[in-house]
Structure formats: structure tokens, C-alpha cells
Design brief:
This protein has 155 residues and is mostly helical. It has one domain. Helices cover 79% and strands 0% of the residues. Helix 1 runs parallel beside helix 3. The longest helix is centred in the N-terminal third of the chain and has 33 residues. The two termini are 34 Å apart.
């Protein structure tokens, strides 16, 4: 399989996303940093379209069929929206972008998509905000992985 295809597929995986894929694509698969960046972004953003599209249907289905899910989703959505709107009022759309952009575990496009759904951010706006966060995370991880920060003495 081509290293470009492997990079796209690896970047689609939750938790790994582009944070783990870019260093792997550069060091093991032999891609140039710019190639690793581009293919990882493609792979990282692809599942987001489906996650944001399917989450409402899955949540509605489970809530209608099982009372325990209905109570859980009601509690989770109310609690999360209450906490988010304070931050959203203060930071606006930047809150979701930064959440996705920070290259740490439990942040990223998958979690950002779930957060966007829970916070009621419209589909198209969510895609754009998550994409911007993915690009920023990709820049950070690519710079770290290619040694740019060590060259200038930051890391």
C-alpha cells in the first residue's frame, strides 16, 4: 500500500488522528513533512463529516428506544451546554478551534465533533471550525516532528 494511503487511513483513527500520524509518516513511512501534513489533514477531517451527520440520528434513536439513554443524553446535553455557553460567550468560535488545535490526548477532531454536536453548533459551521483546528494542530505537529522548533531553540 502506498505511504500516502497509509497516512490517510491512520489519520482517520480516533485518538491517533494526525497527532500520531504525522510523526509516523515522516519517520517510518518516509514522507516529506509537507506530504505528511496534507495527507494527515485529509485523513483526520474525513470521519468528521460522518460523525457530525450521524450523531443526531444515533442519539435520537437511543433516546427513543431506551429510557436510560434518554435520561443520560438529557443530563449530558444540559450539563455540557450550560458549561460551554459560558466559554462560548467569552471566546466564541475560537473555543472549538483551539480545543481541536491543541495537540494533546483527548482533544482533536473526533472529540471536537462530539463537542460541536453537544453544544448545538450547526453542521457547516462545525466542519469549518474543526477544519481550522485540525490545520493548526497539523502545523504544530509537523513543525515539532520535522525538528523546526529544535533548530530555533524552542524545544
Amino acid at each position: 500500500m502506498l505511504p500516502q494511503i497509509k497516512t490517510i487511513l491512520l489519520a482517520t483513527l480516533p485518538i491517533n488522528e494526525l497527532r500520531g500520524t504525522i510523526p509516523l509518516a515522516i519517520s517510518i513511512l518516509g514522507l516529506k513533512p509537507i506530504e505528511a501534513f496534507i495527507y494527515s489533514i485529509i485523513g483526520n477531517i474525513l470521519p468528521i463529516f460522518f460523525i457530525l451527520w450521524l450523531l443526531p440520528a444515533i442519539s435520537n434513536f437511543l433516546s427513543r428506544r431506551f429510557n436510560i439513554f434518554n435520561r443520560f443524553f438529557f443530563w449530558l446535553f444540559a450539563r455540557t451546554r450550560q458549561n460551554f455557553y459560558k466559554k462560548h460567550e467569552k471566546y466564541g468560535s475560537l473555543a472549538l478551534i483551539l480545543f481541536v488545535a491543541v495537540p494533546l490526548p483527548i482533544t482533536g477532531a473526533w472529540t471536537g465533533a462530539v463537542a460541536a454536536f453537544l453544544f448545538g453548533i450547526p453542521y457547516k459551521k462545525s466542519i469549518i471550525l474543526i477544519f481550522l483546528g485540525v490545520v493548526l494542530a497539523g502545523i504544530i505537529v509537523t513543525l515539532i516532528s520535522s525538528g523546526v522548533f529544535s533548530l530555533i531553540g524552542i524545544i
